[in-house]
Design brief:
There is one protein chain. This protein is an alpha+beta fold. The chain contains three helices and seven strands, in the order βαβαβββββα. Strands 1, 2, 3, 4, 5, 6 and 7 form a seven-stranded mixed sheet that branches. The longest helix is centred in the C-terminal third of the chain and has 9 residues. The protein is globular.
Length: 143
């Protein structure tokens, strides 16, 4: 059995988790089976580890705020000769403790020990703090 590993990715064009939820409600964000997916050009070399319970952690404005369990990886052909990877996601979004993350391109692997902890049940519906305050609190380890 493989050791689980996660992915982390910038949620480009979104400022908050609700923006991601709105996008994933759109038919363009779903695969043929109706599950949300993120299509990327690169196929993870550590796919077995990702599929062993991994999640995609989303970064919004410099903070990791949520994750989605990865269901599977599908090949995607858009007719241009480029083989892409469709990261098929569980539609349930799990809020996590706000954790600062510097900008980067594409996706990165995330070790389980470095992954932000899930927020306790009930806190996920609390009104979010302003992003600058949340970022400042996360940087000093309060969140």
């Amino acid at each position: 059995m493989a050791d689980t590993i996660h992915l982390v990715k910038l949620c480009v064009g979104a400022e908050k988790v609700e923006d991601l939820l709105d996008w994933q409600a759109n038919a363009r964000a779903k695969g043929p089976d109706g599950l949300p997916r993120h299509v990327t050009r690169m196929w993870p070399k550590r796919a077995d580890q990702i599929l062993d319970g991994g999640s995609l952690y989303w970064v919004f404005k410099g903070l990791v705020l949520c994750r989605q369990p990865i269901v599977r990886l599908d090949p995607v052909d858009r007719g241009d000769g480029i083989n892409r990877c469709g990261i098929v996601l569980d539609p349930e979004v799990v809020r996590v403790a706000a954790t600062p993350r510097r900008p980067f391109q594409g996706w990165r692997y995330l070790q389980p020990g470095d992954a932000p902890r899930d927020l306790p049940k009930g806190r996920e519906t609390q009104q979010p703090l302003p992003p600058q305050l949340e970022n400042a609190l996360a940087e000093i380890g309060v969140l």
